[in-house]
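pasting for ref. prot 1 ->
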Amino acid sequence: MKLIYPGPALNVSCHNHSCWSDGSTELKAVCRKGKEMGLKILGMSDHYVVPPGDGYDSETWSMKLSRLEEYIETLSQMRNELNDDHFSLKIGLEVDFFFENIEEVLAKLSSYPLDYLIGSVHYSGKFPVDHSIDDWVDLSEEEKNSICEEYYEKLQAAALRKEFLFIGHLDLPKKFGLIDNGKYFSHALKVLDNAAETGIGIELNTAGWYKECNEQYPSLAILEEANRRKIPVIVNADAHDPAHLKRDFERASAILKAAGYPER
């Protein structure tokens, strides 16, 4: 898959999870729901996390690594069942970026028949960036700053990888409304610069409207800068429930228009 500026129309949804990772619903049911809802392209992208050491909690919310072949086989079967002239199922993964093992992880995944990968960051060190507000509330400003700095360093590096179709939820640390997102604007711009150099996209992730930050990922200011760089944007709901596969896509369209993107 390849994203071209300005990005696909609103009947494409490629950041979605099933109960194979942290979603609510069985994989096959999500696929069938996507076709029922009238999507042209549905991409499944359950979490694929290979921790670079001990002390991570990823096994509680990501796909078991030993089930990758079964995951691909199941989606291949669903593609044979569902694909037609009006619907296409794509096989993807949301891959966590770690400096320590990204070469090994991407090399392994390149041997599988995957349609696309999302590049995301969920950990700064072993700190789980988006797990719970309770992880953040007692942190000092210095600690918050250290977490955000490392988050963006990793995302900047992820944006240099051509293996990723797009970068996931670019300004994720704002999720709980406990940091000054504008403080890291220059860091986000470096992600955009790298994505533009690499030729990959970003997403407008509508899930942020249902978190404490009450804002899509990324902010309007970041989307405006993405448009100036002619970076393609795909609208996703980061759905963990099949009812949300197209949640707030029309609202997202208005945000993209405000950012200067051509209408889809």
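and prot 2 ->
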Amino acid sequence: MAQVTVRINGYAYAVGCEDGQEPHLQSMAAQVERRIERIKSIGGQSGEARLLALAALLMADELHDLAAEKLPSGTASALAEGEQARTLMMQRAQLVAGLADRAEAIAAALERD
């Protein structure tokens, strides 16, 4: 495993990555640095944690916009609804499995008697 030191907002961070991924990691750090510089140009200096949080929010917003452009209309909400339906189905399946286990236990007890 390789270790790379990246600089973000004047601070050095040692970050581990897979061998050969060092340039990619440096590129990602540069992306974060660009957003921090953008935030600083808009609103002045803030605390380190606030700058990093705002940079993360900017990147999340950009990812959201990219996903909206790439996915057909309504797909994102359909995926969210699908995940909710899947969770409900999993809960119901667990309930049915529990009931089946209980029924089998009752049947086994009756057979012994």
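Residues 1-70 form one domain.
Helices lie at 22-43, 48-70, 75-112.
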